[in-house]
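Recap quiz, item 2
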Amino acid sequence: MRDNKIHLYDTTLRDGTQGEGISLSVEDKVKIAIRLDQFGMDFIEGGWPGSNPKDMAFFDRMKEMKLNHARIAAFGSTCRPNVAADEDANLRALIDSGVTVATIFGKSWDLHVTEALKTTLDENLRMVGDSVRFLKANGLTVIFDAEHFFDGYKNNAAYAVSVLKAAEEAGADWVVLCDTNGGSLPDEVFTIVSAVVPQLAVPLGIHAHNDGELAVANTLAAIRAGAMQVQGTVNGIGERCGNANLVSVIPNLQLKLGYSCVSEENLGQLTKLSRYVAEIANMSMPNNQPFVGNSAFAHKGGIHVSAVLKNPQTYEHMEPELIGNRRRVLVSELAGQSNLLAKADELNVSFDQEKAESREMIKLIKEREYQGYQYEGAEASLSLLMLEGTGKLNELFSLESFKIFMEKSPERSILSEAMVKLNINGQIMHTAAEGNGPVNALDHALRKALENHFPCLGEMHLTDYKVRVLDEGEATAAKVRVLIESARNGEKWSTVGVSTNIIEASWEALVDSVRYLLWKEGCEAQEPEIQGELKVGIANH
Amino acid sequence: MRDNKIHLYDTTLRDGTQGEGISLSVEDKVKIAIRLDQFGMDFIEGGWPGSNPKDMAFFDRMKEMKLNHARIAAFGSTCRPNVAADEDANLRALIDSGVTVATIFGKSWDLHVTEALKTTLDENLRMVGDSVRFLKANGLTVIFDAEHFFDGYKNNAAYAVSVLKAAEEAGADWVVLCDTNGGSLPDEVFTIVSAVVPQLAVPLGIHAHNDGELAVANTLAAIRAGAMQVQGTVNGIGERCGNANLVSVIPNLQLKLGYSCVSEENLGQLTKLSRYVAEIANMSMPNNQPFVGNSAFAHKGGIHVSAVLKNPQTYEHMEPELIGNRRRVLVSELAGQSNLLAKADELNVSFDQEKAESREMIKLIKEREYQGYQYEGAEASLSLLMLEGTGKLNELFSLESFKIFMEKSPERSILSEAMVKLNINGQIMHTAAEGNGPVNALDHALRKALENHFPCLGEMHLTDYKVRVLDEGEATAAKVRVLIESARNGEKWSTVGVSTNIIEASWEALVDSVRYLLWKEGCEAQEPEIQGELKVGIANH
């Protein structure tokens, strides 16, 4: 029987960056490469050294790095028609990049050979063979990516396979079947890979794209048919609809199909890996992303919640902890008492389990949700509400007033100013700030009023701001719900505000984001002047 | 051979709303239902009438509607253990909802029967049979959803199938196999459905969830094995990781596998349907969404672009026009002139067909879209832009300045006042108004400044106001897009504004909504005093 190990080939840094709106600096790429290595990827494709100076700089940087496990691969194409491999600048660049693994793509669809390359089918075989031989002669591990293999096979199976054989005979270490246009279906992939496996001795890989929303399924089908390497990207980023999402492929292979990809411990880092890459690439992660999304193990309906608390298997396909995610219970209109108590527990709010108190709290939450609050996406505000209900929240400041002034004339861009007056332990802080919108100005003025008393707020920043108009039929007089996400040292929390006035709703969410952090950190107001003196005193010792 | 038609069962309005952060008003649901019907869905599941008043209100509203093709279905469960079907309030609510199709779910996993329902396997069969019989006796079409069927089958195949048979024998019109936890793999689904098909005469459906990123593949596998109904949601929204995405399932079935789902013409509306539902639900559509995403047929790399322009088949798995999407070339601007002229024609803007002028216009529109404008949902603003480009727009007023003042103190609800200074034919109109938010105050002040000169504006009102935050990572300093819908005498039009400042974006959309009406009606400014005298004069005749 064949080996149970599936080799992971990550191309986030090369094919992933072909995705619209995705752009990574050299340092971003280095950071991601280190993380991919820690996670246990076998190959990390870093870029196309012939194509741009940024990719070349990445390979230079990686020469200094010592990786635990992964090998860095450089990507390129075969030599061009009627050019000898050792005279091809593109192949030379692969060698010069200093990597030990080169991945080159070549045509395996006859239509592409004659229409795009404008050469003969025989010359294409020569290009593949010579290129592989040249790289092997220079001591590299060579992976041959057969571009458009599945479309090519459907059009001319014999020729498509002859291309693979040319690579094999020239000494390629891997041959990878690419569904470049992403339009193949899982059973086609299974049938074709099954037919190819017995014809070759070299191990096969699969490179799938997601144009049919089938990249993960196509990858699994190829593995089931005998492929042993998976090419894909973290979070499935990539050109058009993206590449096969390794974040979904890996747990399916390892936890459901019994293959071995990475250590159990590393698999437990999957959710963090996914979020880390999203953070560096500045992409927003969909909440409903399979396996690692925020909602992937979130339960809403009352029936589901009570069942899942009794036996998680009833509504979960696997244990979230295996991949570093966690179960969440959503509080919503549908919720009951078991949701609330589970939630209190999860949020670390010690909640009195007296029936009357929790019934009151459910009533309050339902009233607020009826008014338009939504605590599913704003768990920090829910924690505050629960803490208030138990009388355990110590309010560290209160609003005296705020004022906003905006002015617009045709010549000038709009001016937004905010004034905020707060009472902090009896001391009035009165500040003003500008911003590039009313909420931004308010945010600046609020922090300015607080930051001397609460230095920990300095590291906090807002990371997301969402507005949802409720009862849209009412147009500009409608109620709005504002959701704000804040972050500090990599930890995130979300808050909500509701009002017919967008500014008031934003203010409520802004204040909650601050109150939550102050509670969580157990902050108390510091006297800014005294603090200054103390610091001097300590420095003098 | 079996029928080639696959029946589409849309549950966007029921299972879709279980998705985290998704909340639809009754009117939202009605709008979506009408659109789903136009698209050609066979069944539209509207909600669970027993569970909350909002769903009941939806079914009441739908009684007034005349649909083209679809049948509205109501969702519920079987009767409870030891309760007769005709005494079960939940089943009665299905009948009272006035629909002709009832979908009830029942347990088909023995573990759930004994652990969650706390009853016997036989009593569960009784509940399924009696519930189906009761609904059939009341003249309904009955669809039985076998919850957790695949997990149940793996645990106890004989019992799982006996549940399906109980539904069949009681007269169910459809039996639907649900992968409730979303953890099944495509070949498991294929194998199990293939085993079940010969055991039943009733047609089968498939209901898949996306927890393994395999919902589309699992759905296709079930159809390939003999199922004839697909349950899913638009854009795959739903609990946890969502349901099978009909927007991907339909083109795979119809264009790749040769099944028949909707008419060719309706399939061409797929992209619009997807975006419409996203808009109403206020979800941001991922650019890389398969088939319908903005990037789904976008070509970035130089090699791809030149090849795809010679022969689209080289880098596209299908023609984007078949599903109403379009090819985009991200580096250069090649497409569009014919689109633009067609659009101008459609919008009744007489547009000079001189090449240079239309190229300028394409460039301008692309620039504005790059800045964040979106003209698909704001055709009135697009008309104004085109009219400006041709120099045919007569501006009837201009802004001198506006100011907004807001004040908040703990005792009082927030005060919002706006002052607007306009120049109308050289006459300065300076007005002030309050509102229950800054935009509402601005709207009031703007109309007050205009209405004496332009009496037709009196009948105009705003019907919708939407805010979308672009570049969400920037939080409160992010760009926002405001969409406003206005109406007058039953006619509606939409406008757009974009700015980092929400007030400025709203102002832009507000002003466009007025400018559009004035242009459309061919208004000219009237001198308010003279108008008053004339009216008196006419009245005296």
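The first strand of chain B starts at residue 7 and ends at 10.
The radius of gyration of chain B is 28 Å.
End of item.
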